[in-house]
Amino acid sequence: MKNTSQEYDDVIAICRSLFINKMKDYGSAWRILRIPSLTDQIFIKAQRIRSLQENEIRKIDEDEKGEFIAIINYSIMALIQLELGVVEQPDLDVVTATELYDAKIKLTKDLMLAKNHDYGEAWREMRVSSLTDLILQKLLRVKQIENNKGKTLVSEGIDANYQDMLNYSVFALILNPINI
C-alpha cells in the first residue's frame, strides 16, 4: 500500500533543499516579485512541461521533473508573497524564509490530505499530462482573478489555486518519481 503522506514529504524534501540552497546563493531576491510575475513564472514552467510532453524531439536534454519542482517552489513563494506583501529589497534570511516555506507546506499538505480523503486518491489514476493541463487551467484562472484585481464572486481565491498547483505538481512527481 502506498503512503501518500510519506511520498509527499519525500518530494517536498527535495524541493525544500533546492529552495534553501537557492536562498543561500541568491538570498531572497524573489521577494521583489509581484504576484502576477510569480504567476507568469509558473505559467512558463507549465507551458514548458506541456511542450516536453507533446514534442518528440528535445533540443535540451531535460525532462519535466525539474519544472514541476520549480512550480512547487514558485507556488510557495507566491503564497508567502500573498501573506507578507511585496518588498523593494530582499528582506528574509534563510532561516526565516525556510520557516515560512515550512508553514505554507504544512497548510497545503493538510489541504491535500483532506481532499485526498474525500476523492479517494483519484489522482493516482490520472496521467501526468492531465495534471499539467489542470495546472495550466489553474494558471488561467489566477490570471483572470488578477485581472479582476483579486475579486471573485463565487470562486476560491488565488491562494487556493496556488495550493492546488503545488499539490498537482507533487502528485506528478509521485507518479513519475524523481531520481535522487
Describe this structure in words.
The protein is an all-alpha fold and 180 residues long. The protein has helices at 4-26, 35-54, 65-84, 94-119, 128-147, 158-175. The longest helix has 26 residues, at 94-119. The mean pLDDT is 93.
Write out key terms for the chains shown.
globular; mainly alpha; 180 residues; 6 helices
Shape estimate: globular
Number of strand elements: 0
State Rg. Answer: 16 Å
Our estimate of the beta-strand percent is under 5%
The residue-averaged pLDDT reads 93
Residue windows where pLDDT falls under 50 for at least 5 positions: none
Topology (SSEs and partners):
Layout: H1 4-26, H2 35-54, H3 65-84, H4 94-119, H5 128-147, H6 158-175
Helix pairs in contact: 1-3, 1-4, 1-6, 2-3, 2-5, 3-4, 3-6, 4-6, 5-6
Can you give me a brief rundown of this structure?
By secondary structure, the protein is an all-alpha fold.
